[in-house]
Design a protein that fits this description.
This protein is α/β, with parallel strands linked by helices. 36% of the residues lie in helices and 15% in strands. The chain has a domain at 13-58 and 73-162 and 196-216: Flavodoxin domain (Rossmann fold). Strand 3 (92-100) and strand 4 form a beta hairpin. It binds flavin mononucleotide (FMN).
């Protein structure tokens, strides 16, 4: 059961803990936060900071292939210790980040490994996943890890890049490698932009409002439709 514990006297409080490598998750969160705040929810953001942050773009093809392979093995990326904020002061935690090779990203895995029980135990945690389209294994694995920490995970927010395959996969790879596939004569015909669309950012705002309204009314988040309706594969 969720323990949202909101009451009529105090506005609900949401803490968003996130990692973003190429800016897509942060973009969605900016808009999700607007929607939450519009409903009167207090929102705080906490960035997950790797000790040695990987650079975006990676800059070349071979290191990008290497990154894809190491992340496939769920390599942890060590992060700075989270600060002493009392997460129990929040009605809801949102844990947000990208999919890396069908898994949560290395910084999120390190956060859960080393601090998961302390941060998430006894809390209601709503994951937000930003990906190019292949989020299901990530979601199942993340849910399992959070539940093992003692969290209640009522639902998920999912955003996929709205571009057709195989251009979406090729486009993400080239973008990470430091190229501009949207400007290429061949690929640019089918791949117009990297990442999430303006319509999806507006949708993130709408979902923020939806979650905010549920929190204000102390309603369960389990029944809300929180997947992006734009370009589900
Ligand atoms: C190393 C790496 C591996 C990735 N693997 C996947 C994947 O398995 N499935 C997927 O849908 N997207 C994958 N992506 C794409 C990202 O999930 C996607 O671009 C996301 O929007 C990035 O969010 P961010 O900018 O907040 O980091 C991968 C990206 C990187 C850098």
């Amino acid at each position: 059961m969720e323990r949202l514990g909101t009451d009529a006297q105090n506005p609900p409080r949401v803490l968003i803990i996130y990692y973003s490598f190429s800016g897509q998750t942060s973009g969605l969160l900016n808009h999700l936060s607007i929607g939450l705040r519009q409903q009167g929810v207090e929102v705080a953001l906490e960035k997950i900071r790797p000790l040695n942050p990987p650079r975006f773009p990676v800059g070349a093809i071979l290191p990008t292939i290497k990154m894809m392979l190491t992340t496939f093995g769920r390599q942890r990326l060590s992060i700075r210790d989270p600060d002493g904020t009392n997460r129990a002061d929040y009605n809801l935690l949102i844990l947000a980040g990208p999919t890396w090779s069908y898994n949560p990203s290395g910084p999120v895995l390190d956060l859960i490994d080393r601090f998961g029980s302390r941060l998430f135990g006894g809390q209601t945690v709503l994951p937000l996943i930003s990906c190019r389209g292949y989020w299901r294994l990530h979601w199942l694995g993340l849910k399992r890890l959070l539940i093992a920490c003692g969290a209640v995970v009522p639902n998920k927010i999912i955003f996929s890049h709205p571009a057709p395959e195989p251009w979406r996969t090729l486009g993400v790879f080239l973008k990470i490698a430091g190229r501009a596939p949207e400007r290429s004569l061949l690929i640019g015909r089918y791949y117009k932009r990297f990442g999430h669309s303006k319509e999806q950012l507006a949708e993130a705002e709408r979902l923020g409002s939806l979650i905010g309204t549920a929190l204000i009314k102390n309603q369960s988040l389990a029944e809300l439709e929180l997947q992006s309706l734009i370009a589900l594969p």
